[in-house]
């Protein structure tokens, strides 16, 4: 069974994933909207920047976040003047890092959904007297529903599964930054394979259930429109 | 000034648009021209979906765009209805919710088209609880038209609403468009490149070519002007307006009156005084110097020749004036020479066939 520390790690993981996903859905939807509808020169550079976590080793990302967020880094100095202290090795630091790390997994499905729907539905809404804000809420968002669902699930699952970035920026503080993936690593390192197995198997089961649920939900959503 | 008064100047890549035109406050104005002549861009400018960097737009005296004063009303503030080329219903809403989407956003005091009226006019009552994906192309476009009407627009803009449909769906919708024309007093600006639709629907024509307005005016005048391309080719025809005068039950005929005289057509089930539109192809009109004795042709009108142009070697298009109603005739150059036909001459036009358009 799960030990008390493992249980704490699981709860922390879920808390981290839930909070990161909530922030990601707001930030990611806004960013995806801008990227889908701009013809500006900055579209490609920003797209590339958002996609960086897809190709970078998590340790590279974690390393630079550590430098940026650290007491001598520019962001670290800023958070210190705000009285928030330095972010590394704190739960808040983990949230910020997770948001950056999982951003492409959230932005891309939403951006795809917005781009697939195209400008036409928004033009139709405008011709029916809907202001841009009204059209966004009543047309763009409902039409992007499958993309939003995929984004939320991918963002959540990806945050649950992250390891390298967490280790670099969060360290291994029980109850504060020790998430499930790190706990498994600790068990393996100390040769507690049985404990590692329980935790790893729960995560694998969780991942399977999540992916299956999304598949079924998307199938049903698509079916309802037919 | 009432009606629509517009000028849009913009460049779209290498293409230059510089279109100025007026549309009367009643009836259907068709923007007509070949693909790529800029007519859809003009319609999008009218809707505010596109902003021409130079130009103006005034509708019934209100400025919707005036670039000299940097004034531009965004689409959602313009009292328009817009019907897109492909039926663009919201797939996530039922037909009823699609119809209500625009209506709900118009203040109640400005609603002049009742829900039931639009639903009846476009025949969409049986479809209300369905999802758009379950409708045929023609049904979707009818819903889209009803949805646009329910915003009680002061100007209805239609971008080739039939072009994405198959022939059957087209024939299915055209009568509804004609009813729109007769039942509602909303002015319509309609983009088309199909002469058939123009002949059936247009009252006023704006002829476009390469981003510019080549000519504009009443349909019957522009169809028959010898300096414009519509008067040439196999489809060259005049459109005449007439009213039902009487029926002849014995011979199964209907008589119609138009300024140039009385027209006889096969029996039509129409009430006396009903307004009808007919098309007379230039190829069906022949000219004689005096009314023929013993001819089987019933429709013969006294006309003046008002102009003629050689269409191709040996073939001449003759423009005729039947008491103010223009007609076209295609005859051979040989006939012109033998009969001594010239502008100003009084002749008789024999019409082999006339087709009611509605």
Range of strand content of chain B: 35-45%
**Portion of residues in helices of chain A?**
over 70%
Q: Specify the structural class of chain B.
A: alpha+beta
Rounded radius of gyration of chain A (Å): 20 Å
Describe the structure.
The complex is a heterodimer of chains A (226) and B (358). Chain A is mainly α and 226 residues long. Chain A has a single domain (12-179), classed as MetI-like (MetI-like fold, Orthogonal Bundle). Chain A contains eleven helices and no strands. Chain A has helices at 4-37, 43-55, 58-69, 74-81, 91-117, 120-127, 132-143, 145-161, 164-170, 180-189, 193-224. In chain A, helix 2 (43-55) crosses helix 5, helix 3 (58-69) runs parallel beside helix 9 (164-170) and helix 5 (91-117) packs antiparallel against helix 8 (145-161). The mean pLDDT of chain A is 90. With 358 residues, chain B is an alpha+beta fold. Chain B folds into two domains: 4-224, Rossmann fold (3-Layer(aba) Sandwich); 237-356, Beta Barrel (OB fold (Dihydrolipoamide Acetyltransferase, E2P)), CATH 2.40.50.100. In chain B, 21% of the residues lie in helices and 38% in strands. Chain B has helices at 39-47, 95-104, 115-121, 137-149, 167-183, 195-201, 219-224, 333-339; strands spanning 4-12, 15-23, 28-32, 54-59, 62-66, 71-72, 80-83, 155-159, 188-192, 204-209, 212-218, 237-248, 253-258, 261-266, 275-281, 285-288, 299-312, 315-322, 325-332, 346-351, 355-356. Chain B has a six-stranded mixed β-sheet with strand order 7-8-9-3-10-11, with helices on both faces. Chain B has a five-stranded antiparallel β-sheet with strand order 2-1-4-5-6, covered by helices on one side. The longest helix of chain B is centred in the middle third of the chain and has 17 residues, at 167-183. Chain B is globular and about 65 Å long. The two termini of chain B are 32 Å apart. The model of chain B has no long low-confidence stretch (mean pLDDT 92). At the A-B interface, helix 6 and helix 7 of A face strand 7 of B.
